[in-house]
Amino acid sequence: MTIDAASVATMRIAGVTKMFGTVRALDEIDLELGPGVTGLLGPNGSGKSTLLKLISGQLRPDTGTVRVEGLDPFAQPEVFARLGLCPEQDKFYEEQTGEAFVTALTRLHGYGAREAKARAQAALARVGMTEHMRKPIRAMSRGMRQRTKIAQAIAHDPPIVLLDEPLTGTDPLGRADLIALVRALGQEGRCVVVSSHVLHEVEAMTHQVVLVRYGRLRAQGDIGRLRALLDDRPYRFRIEVGRPRALAAALIALPHVQATEVVGESALELTTTDLMALCRALPGEAARLGLVIDQLGSPDADLESLYRYLIE
Q1: Residue 34 sits in the same domain as residue 172
Q2: Could you tell me the pTM of the whole model?
Q3: Residue ranges with strand state E in 78-172
């Protein structure tokens, strides 16, 4: 199903604080999310799950407002019908089959028995559970249980999907399948929020991220653009090229290149304070020296590096 993006209002969180006793789980969070996939990142205890519970109406903020499609989601059935939630913790009726479990939850959204069953089967097929959907949940592997949780979150075709650590316990093939599914959900125009601490998996799903630490919003936006804002942090850059020493001698003369290091017979690593200036200068310097660049990239332009800079 493809969702009309124009019909999907953004989720708006304004000045939200949430306390648990004397612990401030979230502190003055301001956030706006729309269609597409957004990765919600942060260390354990940073407030990610609390934020998802506020968006899904399980908790009410102590201060500030949460609006989902313009409505307060707390105890609001109209909002629940348009949300799909895959929680981090398992809450199953262990004696049921996956098909029966997803069908029962889909019926709670108001569908009749026949349509709920058809939707459950379609959702389970989409997460790769067709062969196992009639197995009792107590007999399922952890990866199968995760797939079943995701199936119940999408069976009613919600425009907003919240996934809290959805890949936990899945094998490598299962992770690849579910990453592709999450990307597809976003491409259909849904607003998908994925909470995770596995950085390379999030980067495989999306380049749009939200980083939180100690309950405070640290950064939001495209990975590359966020990294570009850290102009006080030099980039590492690696170039695979013949005669790396000759290229190193040319590049070290550039004002934004701080250091160069030849690695082996065909690689050059350097640090620069201006990645774009380096990319503009590199073709000309290589052509002047008669060199062919085989491969290049910046290990500091990925999500793991950004996370390290902003969180650690």
Answers
A1: yes
A2: 0.75
A3: 83-86, 160-164
